[in-house]
Structure formats: structure tokens, C-alpha cells
Amino acid sequence: MTLTDTQKQDMLMKYPHLSKHITVIPHSIISIPLKYEPNGNQICIVSRLDPLKNIQDAIEAFMQFNEKVPGFVLAIYGVGKAEETLLQLIKENNLNRIVQLKGFIKDPNRVFQESNFSIMCSSHEAFALSILESIANGCPAISYDTKWGPAEILDE
Prior knowledge:
Blueprint: H1 5-14, E1 42-46, H2 55-68, E2 73-77, H3 83-92, E3 99-103, H4 108-114, E4 117-120, H5 129-136, E5 141-143, H6 150-153
Parallel strand pairs: 1-2, 1-4, 2-3, 4-5
């Protein structure tokens, strides 16, 4: 069993004799009842704060975005070993008021519903559940095109 067609193709390239034994069964998620409105100026990331998640890329892109479209806040929810590095990047670029590390969140549905869109910048993902959660909450997602997920979830 694999989660995506791409995973299946990758496995078959390595183990062609398994072609009759591999089935794609993707993750699924139901739409969440919308209880909250976008606050008008929030972009979110809901992720473990790990170097593989490339959250620093999102912060750097947000700096460029903010120059052209000021008034937004990048709200980053999660904890992890990259937290100090991210705090330093925020401090060095004087972004404390517009880039916020919010810590662990128990209700990501609310965060997604209150955001204009979400971002996922991971280098590697087995399957990007945060993208599914974002979409299920009516929040468009922007993502790096990592193998095994975003390209099979998101359209252009």
C-alpha cells in the first residue's frame, strides 16, 4: 500500500515484481464545518519547527511579500529544534511585529479558518497532512512541490 501514485511508481521502479501487490490508498479528510472568518491579514504555518520544514524560507519570502503587500502577519504554530534559529532570523530582520512564533496549537482548524492561506515549505514529506487540513478548513495552501503529496493534492 502507498499513499500516492508517485510513491507507487517509485516503488515499482525499484521492485517491479510487486506490481500486482501495490495499491494506492490515499489519506483523506472530510471538510470541517466553518465556524470562523479569516481575520483579513493572517498567513499561517502549522508545522513542527524543524530544519527540514524550511520555515526560514517562508519567513524570507514573507519579507519580500510584505514589501509589496504590507499589513499581513505570518503566524507560525508549532514547536521544535529550529525555534531558536527562527527567533534569531525574526530578530535580525526586525520582524517581531509581523512574524510571530505562536507555539503549540490544540485547535489547528481555527487557525486555518482564520487565515487567508497556509504555507508548507518542507524539503521532504511522506504526505502533507497539513495541506489536507488547510484545504478541509477552506484555507488555500501554498507548498513546495515535494515528492509524494503536494503535487497530488494541489492544483495550479
